[in-house]
Design the sequence.
């Protein structure tokens, strides 16, 4: 009969394990920096933000969530930090220029996502393919280009081909 007497932990190195969407993975690489905020650190009168770096990005995704569990090492380990402690992580991967638009401009019907674009004072229903949503913006992967005039408000009675008059505010 064996009895568990104690558990030994090496706290000289701590890591944060973070689930990251497949959409964000191309922007990340091993050794990229991250900022770790230990949620309970403020209660211990410690500085809350600490530097870390990505040490592992697995080659595959969880097939159900389409996420990968990356590891971020916190170095040096902050005084008072403990294994299992909750944290918030800000990843500092490479910046990729994306076409973003107001999420409220996005419409859906049986054919999928679309927006209304104004061309020559006429409304044109334009199918779009979207990517990552960030706050009140959504990434546009296909369908519209930078500089296209997309309608963001006033959808009542709007339809493909309808003539519209532009206000000074919209120009």
Sequence:
């Amino acid at each position: 009969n064996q009895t568990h007497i104690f558990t030994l932990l090496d706290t000289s190195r701590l890591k944060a394990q973070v689930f990251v969407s497949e959409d964000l993975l191309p922007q990340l690489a091993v050794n990229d920096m991250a900022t770790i905020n230990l949620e309970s650190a403020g209660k211990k009168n410690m500085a809350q933000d600490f530097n870390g770096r990505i040490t592992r990005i697995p080659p595959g995704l969880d097939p159900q969530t389409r996420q990968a569990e990356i590891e971020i090492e916190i170095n040096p380990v902050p005084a008072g930090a403990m294994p299992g402690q909750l944290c918030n992580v800000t990843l500092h991967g490479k910046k990729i220029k994306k076409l973003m638009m107001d999420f409220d401009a996005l419409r859906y019907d049986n054919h999928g996502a679309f927006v209304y674009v104004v061309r020559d004072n006429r409304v044109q229903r334009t199918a779009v393919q979207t990517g990552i949503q960030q706050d009140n913006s959504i990434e546009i992967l296909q369908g519209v280009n930078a500089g296209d005039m997309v309608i963001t408000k006033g959808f009542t009675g709007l339809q493909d081909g309808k003539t519209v008059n532009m206000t000074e505010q919209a120009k």
